[in-house]
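Page 42, continued from yesterday. The earlier attempt failed because a stray header line got pasted into the input along with the sequence. Redoing it now with the clean sequence only.
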Amino acid sequence: MKRSQPTAAKRAPRATEKKPKKGGALVGSQTLVRGLDVVEAVASGATNLAALAESLDLNRSTVHRLAATLVEHRYLTFEPRVGYALGPKLLELGHMARDQMSFPRVARDYIETLAVSTGDTVHLGILDDTRALYLDKIAGSRRVEIRSRIGDRHPLRSTGLGKALILDQPESRWRELYEIENREGNRYGVLLSTWLQRMRTYAKAGYALDLEENEDRIRCVAAPVRDATDSIIGAISVSSAAQYMDDARMESIADEVRSTARAISRAMGWRDDASPPLRVAKRA
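This time it went through. Structure tokens are written below.
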């Protein structure tokens, strides 16, 4: 007796026979974004499923699935009674990214020397849309806490480094950047007219100041770094407590900050004759 063959209706579908759902690419992108959101939430301090679910507005099963995949691929780690933490894969990628970014690598020795010379904290950053992105930080020898981290994004209008990054931009763009902060609800104690006058002075001098505008009792002096096209590609800043940064000292170290920025610029292909002679700025 011949065994009957299963009908088409009863045959289990093979994996290769499945058709991709409409909008599958969008679903995949959404999963990727959610996975990245989980990593960022853990970096911000969410260490368990409850905290992650609340932070991301997702159910626990979805968060668990995403987190488990990230743990499997070493982007996160998990320990019972401790929770989730950033994994070694991110450290590996961070080192690789840093090595591949020539600007931080070239600047490193110069900013280390500047930190030793001044005794203050030195930052290195680039323009990231409407923010200053900190790529490196060398702590100073003074017992002063500068609350910043590599990877932080700070306002352009209130930080010395941020202002240095936009010294070449037209005044119309300065106005836009100032107003963007207002629209985002960030309060600022400097009037637009005063800020624009200061920016004009800084642009002529080739360096910028933070007069306790971004953080109470913290001041800094910053200067732009240029490349072979004479374009600003980044900036460095020296930051310290106001007690170590009165007006006289800010003016006295401005040349050293500017000279260090010029040295980094030369290492990045900039030529000294690419720009007119720099003039010392007075506080606006």
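Notes: Residues 101-274 form a domain with the Beta-Lactamase fold (CATH 3.30.450.40).
Reminder to self: strip header lines before submitting.
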